[in-house]
Amino acid sequence: MIESKGWDWKAVNGESKNYWLTPSVESFYLLHRWKDNGYTSFLDLGCGLGRHSILFGQNGFDVFAFDISKDAIDKTKNSAEELNLNFNYKIGDMRTLPYANESIDCILCKNVISHSDTNGVKQAISELLRVLKPDGECYLTLGSKASENFKRNWPSIDENTTLLMNEGPEYKVPHFYADYELIKKLFFAFKILSVYHVEDIYEIDGIVHSSYHYHVLVRKSIH
């Protein structure tokens, strides 16, 4: 199994930094959905610069900010403290989450879980299932095999995983890619509520970027 590797957040600046400080579109839907569900504990798995931790913290959730990068945790903590927000901070690997069984109501894992190989992704999903409360929900994104990066002649880790070789904060970070059939196998222990296949098109520093991701909402059902 390949070693987990986080982003180099020191390499994120300019327009790119502003992008990663702005909550994602779907996070506002999830915020209202999960408040309506009566959830209170929120895990920002792979918190990065804290954009979702801040959003949920400002709206009354008990926030657990988690990242493999100490720099990411430090930046999230600094931003939260400026707003008088108190979070629970942990540095670690998503394959072994430092939380008790069935202790978290909801988890947002945006552009994170794919930063491992197939076995690592399976372990991370097992951890999501373990820490979620019964009827808790998780929203996550997975890289899609429709993405050009999956088709490039980059170092292959396994049939679903390559190393990203673009210079920047993700250089040599493993990237796992899925299709719908694989998603169904990976989340067999959950109830799959929705799956969207989305092409992301965005421009940073004058360069147009495009990538495909699966957006997946699952629930830990009571059997």
Radius of gyration: 17 Å
How far apart lie the N and C ends?
Answer: 32 Å
Helix and strand run: HHEHEHEEHEHEEEHEE
What is the 3D shape? Answer: globular
Q: Beta-strand level of the residues, as a percent range?
A: 25-35%
What is the CATH top level name?
A: Alpha Beta
Average pLDDT level: 91
Spell out the CATH superfamily: Vaccinia Virus protein VP39
Q: What name does CATH use for the topology?
A: Rossmann fold
CATH architecture classification name? 3-Layer(aba) Sandwich
Structural class: alpha/beta
How many β-strand runs? 10
Provide the domain count. 1
Tally of contiguous helical segments: 7
Write the topology of this structure.
Blueprint: H1 14-21, H2 25-36, E1 41-45, H3 51-57, E2 62-67, H4 70-82, E3 88-91, E4 104-109, H5 118-131, E5 132-144, H6 148-151, E6 156-158, E7 161-163, E8 174-178, H7 180-186, E9 191-204, E10 207-219
Parallel strand pairs: 1-2, 1-4, 2-3, 4-5, 5-8
Antiparallel strand pairs: 5-10, 6-7, 7-8, 9-10
